[in-house]
Amino acid sequence: MLTRTNELLVRIEPWAEADLALLYRMNAPEMLEHLGGPETEEQILARHKRYVEIGGKGKGHMFSIVLLSELEAVGNIGYWERVWQEETVYEIGWGVLPTFQGRGIASAATAAAVASARAEQKNRYIHAFPSVDNPASNAICRKLDFKFNAECSFEYPPGSFMRCNDWRLDLTAAT
Q1: Contact call for residues 127 and 91 (beta carbons, < 8 A)
Q2: Ramachandran region, residue 111 (left: φ > 0; alpha: ψ -120 to 50; beta: rest)
Q3: What's the pLDDT tens digit per position in 89-111?
Q4: Pairing of strands 125-128, 87-96
Q5: Residue 143 near residue 109 (C-beta atoms within 8 A)
Q6: What is the mean pLDDT of residues 54-74?
Q7: What SUPFAM superfamilies does the annotation carry (predicted)?
Q8: How far apart are CA 62 and CA 94, in angstroms?
Q9: Which residues, in sequence order, are bridge partners of residue 61?
């Protein structure tokens, strides 16, 4: 799926075995400051396995974000099923390597992932839960017409709670 942003062409590609190197690059303190910090080797390998397998389970999709002008994977985006407030919804999350941030890449990739989730016609809502202290991710939600629900306590990583904003987008609404 291709999306143009600020004269950049961005493509999301299904997560593949070769994307493990990208996951290692993204496991940096500045990338994970709002998400509990870097992961161990074991956690990275388990995450990579989940990312590779999720599409085949019918529970969501993970993608690498490719900046076509440089033919380089510069981040990841994905959505997965979860139960939120007694309803099965998609949760969406993204990350872009620091040297590529601030160029609209995450917004373009998020729009493409939302379009993918919408095309599935499986779940009505997709939620994003950025930290209350992450202005860039909250701005993406506003830009893409997610509706702010409320601030909430969110468990991530498991065993640790953080303050997040609950943003929701109706995938059945006209675009």
Answers
A1: yes
A2: alpha
A3: 999 999 999 999 999 999 999 99
A4: parallel
A5: no
A6: 92
A7: Acyl-CoA N-acyltransferases (Nat) (SSF55729)
A8: 10
A9: 79
